[in-house]
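Input (structure):
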């Protein structure tokens, strides 16, 4: 049986606009979130929190979704000194409209932005913004100034354009203003004001803003701590496939924090987030599948989910998958592969005496094979 252990905190991530590489913000959730600890013969594995994955995913200011732009045409932009954000945040992937085609009716400014032609994007957006009320163009100008793409980095000018776009009805601009206010970029840091902006954006249908507002209610720092309000906003964002919101709502449902405890509903949320690629949710959902908690027991499906998270670099998943391989639960027994996964997890700080014993008992040739495979994985080779 696999049981969960309390972790001192869970990593939830604020959704942000912008294409910069952003770091994780550790946020307290429940009193704490459960992380898996495999209970297999031979001893229990130690536990550690999986690191949240850094993101380079841009948010389109009008709240629609698409792909990350390339940065080929302007190599100097990537080398330009960046203003450090006072509060580290993680990005939410929001996609873009279809690229324009010759003679088509696509968005030329965003088409250029997607391709990495930031100067062209700026010029086209500025032309449209000056021609009249165009919230999408104004928001794009804010984005370019906020990230220093094609223009000098200038948070204050970004704020000016975002405000114009917000006044013209852009929920994406309100969302961006909320993030910049939360981080203190271009304006004084003000969590309460950020919450108000997130609420305005969320009421206009912006899913990222709804999720961020939920996090602020869950943290209870400057905004009053209200788990029930957090759950309400998470539910709104989760319905729009925001994977972080699905995971967060799953945690609250599992713990009965702010909502009635509902393990089956928690499993549905965890499963939805896992399928969208939320690695921590994949670990949690795999445990639920293995134990039959809220879902039918399915060790093979659990093993496959652990493997998916293990391949994404999650040390806990690597350890749990190694344990399953070592004893043949959900997957054919393969102690050499188990040793390789264990050595990889151990190199990331997650030791396991039971699996140390598996490695020690391997024939020397198999042990060297496992060590070589773990070294290849560690170096990024297959």
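Output (sequence):
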């Amino acid at each position: 049986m696999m049981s969960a252990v309390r972790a001192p905190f869970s990593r939830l991530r604020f959704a942000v606009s912008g294409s910069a590489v952003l770091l994780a913000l550790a946020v307290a959730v429940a009193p704490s979130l459960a992380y898996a600890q495999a209970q297999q013969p031979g001893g229990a594995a130690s536990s550690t929190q999986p690191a949240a994955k850094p993101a380079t995913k841009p948010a389109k200011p009008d709240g629609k979704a698409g792909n990350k732009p390339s940065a080929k045409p302007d190599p100097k932009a990537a080398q330009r000194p960046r203003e450090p954000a006072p509060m580290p945040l993680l990005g939410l992937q929001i996609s873009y409209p279809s690229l324009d085609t010759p003679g088509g009716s696509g968005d030329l400014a965003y088409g250029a932005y997607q391709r990495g032609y930031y100067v062209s994007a700026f010029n086209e957006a500025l032309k449209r913004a000056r021609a009249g009320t165009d919230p999408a163009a104004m928001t794009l100008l804010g984005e370019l100034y906020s990230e220093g793409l094609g223009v000098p980095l200038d948070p204050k000018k970004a704020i000016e354009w975002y405000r114009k776009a917000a006044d013209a009805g852009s929920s994406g601009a309100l969302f961006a203003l909320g993030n910049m206010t939360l981080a203190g970029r271009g304006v004084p840091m003000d969590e309460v004001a950020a919450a108000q902006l997130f609420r305005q954006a969320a009421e206009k249908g912006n899913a990222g803003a709804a999720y961020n507002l939920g996090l602020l209610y869950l943290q209870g720092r400057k905004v009053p701590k209200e788990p029930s309000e957090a759950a309400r906003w998470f539910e709104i964002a989760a319905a729009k496939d925001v994977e972080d919101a699905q995971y967060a709502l799953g945690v609250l449902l599992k713990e009965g924090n702010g909502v009635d405890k509902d393990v089956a509903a928690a499993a549905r949320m965890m499963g939805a987030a896992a399928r969208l690629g939320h690695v921590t949710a994949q670990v949690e959902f795999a445990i639920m599948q293995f134990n039959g908690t809220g879902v039918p027991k399915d060790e093979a499906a659990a093993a496959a989910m652990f493997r998916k998270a293990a391949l994404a670099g999650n040390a806990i998943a690597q350890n749990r998958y190694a344990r399953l391989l070592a004893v043949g639960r959900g997957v054919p027994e393969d102690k050499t592969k188990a040793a390789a996964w264990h050595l990889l997890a151990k190199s990331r700080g997650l030791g396991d005496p039971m699996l140390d014993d598996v490695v020690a008992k391997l024939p020397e040739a198999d042990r060297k094979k496992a060590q070589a495979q773990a070294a290849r994985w560690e170096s990024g080779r297959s």
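Notes: The chain is about 55% helix and 5% strand. The beta strands are 2-6, 34-40, 43-44.
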